[in-house]
Amino acid sequence: MKRGNDRATIIALAAAAVSLLLSGAAAPPAQQPADQPKLDTGPMIRPTDDPAKVAAAKQFIMLYHPQTDPKNINKMIDVYMPHAIAAAQKKDPKLDAKKFEQDKRAHFLDNAARTLDNQAHVVSRHFSLQELKDLSAFFGGALGQKLTAESPRITQEIRVAHREEMMPKPGDDRDDSQAPSKPAAPGHK
């Protein structure tokens, strides 16, 4: 795979992983330490959620994870849609491409809006309104935007460095599975 494609794939996978982590779908059940309060696993959307905090949380999430912003989702759909239409037309040459695109776009946007709303409700319970405003101010500013832009590259650099550290070094002709066995017990050969 070419380096540019590899990088784009990694960034796309990282974005998907972050989305899954925010939705909780990829997180394994964790043991809570005794000194921490139990996780609140009630419904994501509750009538007791403060609408102002939910709106502030939504703003923060879109700044912290720009791929969740509907305008960016539309851009991703624009890139994806020609490939989806072509694949669907291979299966059904009589496909109404315009209707297919409208239906798919509506489906993706509805799912994204629902996911963002769910996340905003949950996030709103973990921060005060002022904290959410402060987070949005930071991630909307130059330094926060740089952090958001650099995070995928930092993660990629760490992964590559880790992978290189794990690779056998020249002259290291054995791996851990070939470690010397214990010496035989006395009297055994």
Write a structural description:
This protein is mainly α. It has a domain of 115 residues. The N terminus is likely disordered.
Average pLDDT over all residues: 81
Shape: extended
Number of strands: 0
How far is the N terminus from the C terminus? 51 Å
| Secondary-structure class | mainly alpha
Oligomer: single chain
Radius of gyration (Å): 24 Å
Let me know the largest β-sheet: none
Q: Tally the helices: what do you get?
A: 6
Helix % is 55-70%
Measured by DSSP, the beta-strand proportion falls in: under 5%
Low-confidence stretches: 1-30
| H/E element order | HHHHHH
Summarize the structure.
Helices cover 65% and strands 0% of the residues.
Could you name the key traits of this structure?
about 190 residues, 6 helices
Q: What order do the helices and strands come in, and which of them pair?
A:
Elements: H1 3-23, H2 51-64, H3 70-91, H4 97-124, H5 129-140, H6 142-166
Helix pairs in contact: 2-4, 2-5, 3-4, 5-6
